[in-house]
Amino acid sequence: MVRKIIEIKEAGDSSGGLVEVVATGVPAGLGEPVFKKLDGELGRMMSIGAVKAVEIGEGLRVKDITGYECNDQMTADGKKNVIFKSNHAGGITGGLTTGQTIVARLAVKPTPTISKDQETIDKVDRTASVLKAVTRRDPTLVARIWPVAEAFTAMILVDHLIMHKGYQAMWQQ
Asked: What pLDDT tens digit does each residue of the chain (173 aa) get?
């Protein structure tokens, strides 16, 4: 991967990529079924610069598989514990965590400032022009977005954990 990025940079271009965030040990029941669905909250990572898509679990692949293939079927382990046979939903079903690993992937667009000449418009006289970028640029933004996505995910999960604890406290009174 690093070699490919260097090749693209040497050609005067940039590359996009995929950032995967995985959260383990998240308890079941975080989130909301309608207004604060956890997968919708994680979708807010679209606000991170250069992120063009966010998918949870199988994401876009679900359009190509059947319900039987997509459903995360459950079984019991003999001790009344629920065991999922798969994790196509990425740890979130109906807006709530299942207790499984949460998997979110972000599609990151290539750095727009590149060394190759690009067609543009002169903003003063609105005529066709050529943009010749002369600034420093990253060959890819993926390495910069990865820690931001991890922190973003952590903040959302902590926020939902605090709400969950508050809801539980209300029921105990």
From this structure: 789 988 988 888 899 999 999 999 999 999 999 988 999 999 999 999 999 999 999 999 999 999 999 999 999 888 888 889 999 999 999 999 999 999 999 999 998 888 888 899 999 999 999 988 777 778 999 999 999 999 999 999 999 999 999 988 888 76
CA distance 67 to 126: 52
DSSP letter string over 142-163? Answer: HHHHHHHHHHHHHHHHHHHHHH
The pTM of the full predicted model, rounded to 2 decimals, is 0.86
Tokens of 79: 């001790």
d(CA 127, CA 123): 8
Cβ(137)–Cβ(111) under 8 Å?
yes
